[in-house]
Amino acid sequence: MHRTQVGGALLPVGDVNAAVSAFLRTSPPRLRWDVDFDFDWSGADANRLTDGERSAVEFITIIEDHLPGYFALYEKNFPVDDSVDLETFTHNRELYHFTIRWAQEEDTHARALERYQVAAGIAGADELRVSLAQEGHKTFDLPYTDAVQFFTYPLVQEKATQIYYQHLRQVVGDPLLREILVRLSKDEARHFSFFADMVRLYLQRHGDAVVGPIREVIADFRMPLADTIRGYWRWALKIADTARYDHTEAYDHLIKVVNRAVDAKSDKVDELISFVTACRVLQTT
Ligand SMILES: [Fe+2]
Ligand SMILES: [Fe+2]
């Protein structure tokens, strides 16, 4: 993998440490969960699901299963090796405490959904492994130029995913699947909080300098894998019939973060807020 430190301003390492420490404190050992020990897999039953609900499970399994691709973005853009100077390394090493824990949690999401599909009889283990690999080995890239963009994109994506899982869990017919979706949405909410903290700190430290890069993320926003999954748009519309799926619901949360970060708003910040508000109505899945 080619590693090149991303451009744009970075946060002081003390800020990163504060955000990472706050995130790690949100998962005390007694609240952590595990695929092998926390569910009664014998209760999984796809006969309780509608076709649309099964389809939604298949869809989110693919999205969660792409974790190696998401994780690689941070390894690539925030290298933890001798390709960067010592100060940058120190920053990246601090961030790594987050990414490694986050990646572990996301990998658990992928395993939980895969296990559910097999236990519920949606798919056979071998056939599912092969079909996940077909999507999983495709490259996912976010060709951003500024560090802050690697926190803005997941701020929206994590919140959108959390909201979607909450909508979905309200309709699904299998209690075990509901339980899984509760676990997942709680984790996505914690992930969102970390990225929201980071974006807030970027705005507070760097002000107008990060407004343009944040705006660009929203201007081009597409959910992960929208460009690589075969038949993505048709599928996204289909699952929206089962439970509301609209990533722009997450934009309200970005607006809140911006509002809270900056007391006296510059023209650039005001313009950013109106822009995101306008996209909230215009963009669809
Ligand atoms: Fe997840
Ligand atoms: Fe997440």
TrEMBL record:
Transmembrane segments: none annotated. It is an enzyme of class 1 (oxidoreductase). Pfam families: FA_desaturase_2. Its EC number is 1.14.19.2. GO terms for molecular function: stearoyl-[ACP] desaturase activity. Keywords: Fatty acid biosynthesis, Fatty acid metabolism, Iron, Lipid biosynthesis, Lipid metabolism, Metal-binding, Oxidoreductase. InterPro entries: Fatty_acid_desaturase-2, Ferritin-like_SF, RNR-like. Its cofactor is Fe(2+). Belongs to the fatty acid desaturase type 2 family. This is Acyl-ACP desaturase. It comes from Actinophytocola glycyrrhizae. The lineage of its organism: Bacteria, Bacillati, Actinomycetota, Actinomycetes, Pseudonocardiales.
